[in-house]
Specification:
By secondary structure, the chain is α/β, with parallel strands linked by helices. It has nine helices and seven strands; from the N terminus they run E-H-E-H-H-H-E-H-E-H-E-H-E-H-E-H.
Length: 256
């Protein structure tokens, strides 16, 4: 499985929030190191302005250009997810271990530690390059991925289905995902906003590591069925560094 990562994402100086907390990614990197037979690290490039502007206004982009470090990291984050999407399009399951996250970023506003909508930009790039016409996005972050919805619903010719499960029972949560997947067909690619803050030892206190593994397996099964195996995931939330790596690895072992 391809892991998109660069040491630039370890820089914690761009903001004072949980997503930028020093050491947040350490447990993920340890899991990757401990499972090198399963993972191959690929470094991304910074996204181009033209890529970002497919999802965001010029005013929004210029506002963050005023902060050179934040703009650099956010642009690399977008570039990491673009790389993950391109790998997935070439039938290589991938996970972008990036920050800052992106699913709360709308075209001209943002919140929740997000600045540019990484996943929306990556999917729109594939769409405008005529590589895909449709996508399914599963967002299992603790918080609703409002930015992804508001951006992608504007592009009427790009057929997107987005699920943010909302059950408060873990079994029903998994059932909701499975039932939604059962109703899908003719999808070109599956994308995942993988926020692990719904974990049993994180903010949401709902999902165990084995549940993330089940989600990964479901997505693998259905991607092989409806999207020719094309699938990628992107790090969003997850703020307990002691368990973030375990949840990440559990998901990836099912998803890969």
């Amino acid at each position: 499985m391809k892991i998109i990562f660069d040491d630039i994402f370890l820089n914690s100086d761009y903001a004072l929030d949980p997503a930028a907390e020093k050491g947040r990614l350490d447990s993920i990197l340890k899991m990757i190191k401990d499972n090198l037979n399963d993972y191959e690290i690929i470094k991304p490039e910074s996204a181009k302005e033209e890529d970002i502007l497919r999802a965001h206004t010029k005013k929004h982009l210029n506002y963050y250009k005023k902060n050179p470090l934040l703009y650099k990291l956010a642009s690399f984050s977008v570039g990491g997810v673009i790389k993950a999407a391109e790998e997935a399009f070439n039938n290589n399951p991938s996970f972008a271990v990036i920050r800052p996250p992106g699913h709360h970023a709308s075209s001209d506003s943002c919140w929740g530690f997000c600045y540019f909508n990484n996943i929306a930009i990556a999917l729109l790039k594939l769409f405008f390059e005529k590589k895909i016409k449709s996508a399914f996005i599963l967002d299992f972050d603790f918080h609703f991925g409002d930015g992804t919805v508001t951006i992608l619903k504007k592009e009427k010719k790009f057929r997107t289905k987005i699920l943010n499960p909302n059950s408060n029972d873990k079994d029903m949560y998994l059932f909701e995902i499975k039932e939604y997947l059962n109703k899908l067909d003719n999808i070109d690619i599956i994308a995942v906003s993988a926020g692990f803050d719904l974990g049993i030892e994180d903010w949401g206190g709902l999902l165990f590591p084995k549940d993330y593994n089940k989600i990964g397996k479901l997505l693998k099964k259905f991607s092989n069925k409806i999207s020719n195996g094309r699938r990628f995931a992107v790090l969003e939330g997850g703020y307990n560094p002691e368990v973030l790596g375990v949840n990440f690895n559990s998901f990836c072992q099912g998803f890969k």
